[in-house]
């Protein structure tokens, strides 16, 4: 299976992603038992987050400043906002709470979703006197996160909660700790695997010579490549002196103006969910619906429909055959055909899917009871014994018609039971499988890491 993408407007992309998230939720609700519990929990959390983010629209772009202690996130936040709002620590700079600034448009619902305290929100009003680079930021919601390496466990939990909710991650590092293992292993590598839209800012370059700043930038770019972030730029900046801020603002303005970063962030979440689900799927296997007509024929025959058709034909030829006996099906026969159906419906799929299909369709006892009721209530044709000399020439044709009509009625009654109780549940499980498999194909042909270019 392959999925083809064509360029879509942000609004259309949002609709497409919303439909895909809805299909994934339906698939998980039908077939979650086929998924390992830890993956199941992760995927449902992803679904909830994607639905919530898409419901808020793509008019805002959430940019999160993330980094370690002393990297200068709060100073950079203040420099981008243009005033002191997030107050850096004194002895050892640390950010204890999420602080937010929104440009141009009210973002109350979004900030409520992010759980940003009302007292830590700042609205940057934009007017005609503002510079163009400020106007281009209209729609941006900038977050200053706690330090990922904080000794306070609550701070780290806040980072881990908010990072997946951001549309664009702005990783802030400093010349002393840019190679920090915790940042690269716990966050940057994960952002790369998940294709999260990202930028990396090398802050405090005013402390370095020009030559040293470029050397550190090149080494940081090398480390990012090891993380898998081959498409993510390193931006040398000094939040204290303003060096490089114009370039960073232009990059952020481009991302915000595109209004597709939020959609791309949701798409990245779905790609990650697809990777998580891939272990519960079989590569290159397409579930196939077994032969429905064959199942109808076998169960009709086992219930005595064919024998009744033969008896109807005999009566049409003049035999005194009794057609009033009820048709019966054994539980063993129903269960045998049911299990054969399950085997065929899950051929090539992981074993867990066999159990999901088996649980979704009716069991042998239910099939026996419902088939017998349907056959008892079927509109069987009335078969009259022929009489008179003319009947001698009509016997063969009458017998053939009686048998055919009886078989049609019997098989129709059997099919009316099997379609809702066996066929449709199986088709639903197959659709769930395909919806999950579709996610594993989303990143085909995509780069291993994602910057802000759309």
Characterise this structure:
By secondary structure, the chain is α/β, with parallel strands linked by helices. It has 2 domains: 59-258, Rossmann fold; 292-440, no CATH class. It is built from 16 helices and 7 strands. The longest helix has 50 residues, at 391-440. It is elongated, with a radius of gyration of 33 Å. Residues 1-11, 86-94 and 444-454 have low confidence and may be disordered.
Computed Rg: 33 Å
* Order of secondary-structure elements: HHEHEHEHEHEHEHEHHHHHHHH
Task: Please name the CATH topology of the largest domain.
Answer: Rossmann fold
Strand content: 5-15%
The major sheet is characterized as: 7 strands, mixed
Tell me the span between the first and last alpha carbons.
25 Å
Q: How does CATH name the architecture of the largest domain?
A: 3-Layer(aba) Sandwich
Average pLDDT works out at 86
Widest β-sheet, arrangement of strands: 3-2-4-1-5-6-7
What is the topological layout?
Blueprint: H1 10-31, H2 37-55, E1 61-67, H3 73-81, E2 99-103, H4 108-113, E3 121-124, H5 132-135, E4 140-144, H6 153-162, E5 168-173, H7 181-193, E6 198-202, H8 210-227, E7 234-236, H9 245-258, H10 261-277, H11 292-303, H12 305-316, H13 331-345, H14 351-360, H15 364-376, H16 391-440
Parallel strand pairs: 1-4, 1-5, 2-3, 5-6, 6-7
Antiparallel strand pairs: 2-4
Helix pairs in contact: 1-2, 1-10, 1-16, 2-10, 10-16, 11-13, 11-16, 12-16, 13-15, 15-16
